[in-house]
Amino acid sequence: MRLIFTFILGALVFTGGVTAQDETAKPAIPAAEAVAAADKFKPAVPRPSVEFPDVVPVDKTTLKAFPTPTPTPDAQPASQTSMYTRPDGKTRAKRYFNSMFGPFALARSAATAGIGTWRNSPEEWGPHWEGFGRRFAANVGRSVIRNSVMFGLDEALKVDSHFYRSEKRDTTSKIVNALVSPVTARKPDGKRTIGIPRIVGTYTSSIIAAETFYPARYDYKDGIRTGSISLGFNAAFNLIKEFVWKK
Q1: Where does residue 178 rank: exposed (0-12), middle (13-18), buried (19+ CB within 10 A)?
Q2: pLDDT (0 to 100) of residue 83
Q3: Residue 88, pLDDT above cutoff 70
Q4: What is the distance between the alpha carbons of residues 41 and 36, in angstroms, rounded to a whole number?
Q5: Which one of 74, 90, 101, 135 has the fewest CB atoms closer than 10 angstroms to its CB?
Q6: Where are the alpha helices (DSSP H) in 73-157?
Q7: What is the pLDDT of residues 118-160, one digit of tens each?
């Protein structure tokens, strides 16, 4: 009996030791896995939905309609630019001929001869048709000399003494342009400069005419005075071109 009791007690001790050893040998569960396992039992929380606008495809044609402006270093403000373009050689030669024998040039010579005949100046030529003819011929001769000198200097100095109507169409700009043009010329870029060709041509033709065409009592002093008057008449005719004869 004592032997049976001892056997049962030993079996119980052996079984309890193995169980305790097994519990101690079990590995510990990592914290991250424990948290993940706990999250499985949490109720799901709906995420807020974000709506994105529809993306419209851009057509290449639309891009071409709005080109990117390319800055130019030489660009100038519109107020400083000019519409002037230097004429070619053929146009300049045609203007040279018209300045002597064109309708406007002949009309100017005739008008000046008419005023001289009305005033009977010079009186040696008389106040009649014969005097008018001599005055008209003298004016045409002066015109040939003046415009030939002016054309030659224009070509040599690369300027343009031709009259151009004002780009600004208000009355003040027209008047200023008409009065300034007789003593100015244009550079190839359109900027104004002192009109040496017209000034030299006007006084040269007047002095030559006074020393050759006119009666002996006339000399270079009369030519200088006549040249100054001629520049004044030129400004008056420019006013006619600005306001009346728009060609």
Answers
A1: buried
A2: 83
A3: yes
A4: 9
A5: 74
A6: 89-101, 103-119, 129-157
A7: 999 999 999 999 999 999 999 999 999 999 999 999 999 999 9
Residue 141 in tokens: 């001769």
Report how far apart, in Å, the C-alpha atoms of 115 and of each of 65, 238, 242 are: 63, 18, 23
Specify the residue for token string 């100095």.
157
Rounded to a whole number of angstroms, the CA Rg of the chain reads 52
Residue 37: the pLDDT is: 54
Per-domain residue ranges for the chain? 89-243
**CA angle (131 as vertex; 129, 132 as ends), nearest 5:** 60
Q: How far apart are CA 60 and CA 62, in angstroms?
A: 5
Instruction: For residues 12-20, give the mean pLDDT.
Output: 46
Please state, in angstroms and rounded to a whole number, the distance separating the CA atoms of residues 245 and 111: 15
Q: Residue type for 4, please?
A: I
First to last CA, the chain: 152
